[in-house]
Structure formats: structure tokens, C-alpha cells
Design goal:
The chain has 193 residues and is mainly beta. Helix content is 0%, strand content 59%.
Length: 193
């Protein structure tokens, strides 16, 4: 067969979103669409992206495996999985990362073939915000005053567009003109009042 082709039939990430500092399993399934057996399949993940004259390091490291996996052969119309375990750096920013890979294999005549593509991996973590009273001048003697709240980001990722709304209660009357305050961005391990 002159047309020895391999198709990337699926890419799965478990979990769907990897938290910073945590592991994720990536499974790339390939299928032999050629009528002949393919041999010496070699898939390599590139955990860096060349950008002009510099190289950008992607925030992942392989765990219990290398970035390169070899398989002996793939018979016609059959599929096989290439499995990688990656750990996201603890300081990885929440976003989608494109990881390039190259699949190299040989057809029945010994000709080398290459397939290049990218997979998308999502790094994300659940925000961890706590609130506390920072200061107040209210007391039993003083029935009207102000309350300042502190919002602390204990999570690993920055929070964008934080908006705070005070709920209505029978225990107090809100004298401010609005019940909503826009705080904006709140970086990890920081606070705003």
C-alpha cells in the first residue's frame, strides 16, 4: 500500500481538568487505516513550544513515564492507546495548553512516516475564597456605622472579575446606595477589602 495512514481517533484526559500540582492521565488512541501492518510506532510529546528563537516551557512534567512511548506494531484496522501521566506545575496558570506530538512509524516497505498534531489539556482549579470582617465601628451604643470586609484568595489560581453582593437580612438595614461592590482581580495568596 502506498497510502499507509494512521488516524488519531480520540484523545482523553482524566480528569477533564487538571489542577495545578496534580496528575492527569492522557490517552491518545490511534487507528491503522492502511491494509498492511505498521511497525515501530513511536509517539513523542513535546512539553515545550518553540517561539521564534526562544523556547516556551509548558507547565507539565511526565510522571512514571517518559514523553516518548514505543510500540512494536499495529495491525490493519486495529487501534492502540498511548498513555501518559503528566503532573501540572503547582504554579501553572488556569488555561488550555496545546501540547504538540509527533507519531513516527514504518510501513511494510520500511518507509518512515510522520504524523504531527497537537492535543489540548485544560489546567484549572476551583477558587478558594474566604471572607472575614476586617474592621467595623458598629457597637451597641452606635447603631449606624461602616463595616469593612476582607476577601482572601487561598486558592492556587488568580480570580478575575470578583463581584461582592451583600444579602438582605432582618438583622440590619443597608444604608449604602448599592448592595454590590466590584473588587476586580484577586491574585492567589492575596486579599482585597
Amino acid at each position: 500500500s502506498r497510502d499507509a495512514t494512521v488516524a488519531i481517533t480520540s484523545v482523553k484526559t482524566d480528569p477533564l481538568e487538571i489542577q495545578p500540582g496534580q496528575d492527569g492521565k492522557i490517552t491518545i488512541t490511534v487507528t491503522n487505516n492502511a491494509p498492511t501492518t505498521l511497525t515501530d510506532l513511536n509517539m513523542k510529546l513535546y512539553l515545550y513550544n518553540p517561539s521564534g528563537s526562544t523556547t516556551i516551557d509548558l507547565p507539565f512534567a511526565p510522571v512514571n513515564s517518559a514523553t516518548e512511548i514505543r510500540k512494536a506494531q499495529l495491525n490493519p484496522q486495529q487501534s492502540m492507546d498511548f498513555e501518559y501521566t503528566l503532573r501540572a506545575y503547582p504554579d501553572a496558570t488556569s488555561k488550555i495548553y496545546k501540547i504538540p506530538f509527533v507519531l513516527t512509524y514504518y510501513d511494510i516497505l520500511g518507509n518512515q512516516k510522520n504524523k504531527t498534531d497537537v492535543i489540548g489539556v485544560v489546567v484549572n482549579s476551583v477558587p478558594d475564597v474566604i471572607s472575614a470582617i476586617d474592621k467595623t465601628d458598629l457597637s451597641q451604643q452606635k447603631k449606624t456605622g461602616s463595616v469593612t470586609l476582607k476577601f482572601i484568595n487561598k486558592g492556587l489560581n488568580d480570580i478575575k472579575f470578583l463581584n461582592v453582593q451583600i444579602e438582605k437580612s432582618e438583622n440590619y438595614n443597608l444604608l449604602s446606595t448599592t448592595d454590590t461592590t466590584y473588587i476586580g482581580n484577586l491574585v492567589s495568596d492575596d486579599y482585597q477589602t
